[in-house]
Design goal:
Largest sheet: 3 strands, antiparallel
Order of helices and strands: HEHHEEH
Helix content: 55-70%
Number of helices: 4
Number of strands: 3
């Protein structure tokens, strides 16, 4: 059974947890920005989960794509962060909420 003291401490514990979460989010953002370098096509394919080079090229040309790239003569490099964002976005939007069923 929960005591009144434990119930009274809950708002304080929640506030501490919220502060730690904000700090963690700030550290994660700083980390992601620090590792955002440019990767070659082979690495971009691995990071995005795209199987073929042709599909990667088509995807980077698609209007509104998350993939950011730079051309250096004939070679192309991709932003590591944008490749990861692309993969996460595809994973999150792969299954529409209407088609999800909860097992009972």
């Amino acid at each position: 059974m929960t005591s009144l003291e434990q119930l009274a401490a809950l708002p304080n514990q929640y506030q501490q947890l919220e502060q730690r979460l904000v700090l963690l989010e700030q550290r994660l953002t700083a980390y992601v920005e620090s590792v955002n370098d440019e990767v070659d096509t082979h690495e971009a394919l691995k990071l995005t989960g795209i199987k073929s080079r042709t599909t990667l090229i088509e995807e980077r040309k698609r209007p509104g794509t998350l993939l950011q790239y730079s051309k250096h003569g004939k070679s192309v490099s991709y932003s590591r962060k944008s490749c990861i964002d692309y993969k996460l976005d595809r994973r999150l939007h792969q299954y529409p909420a209407t088609s999800l069923r909860i097992a009972s």
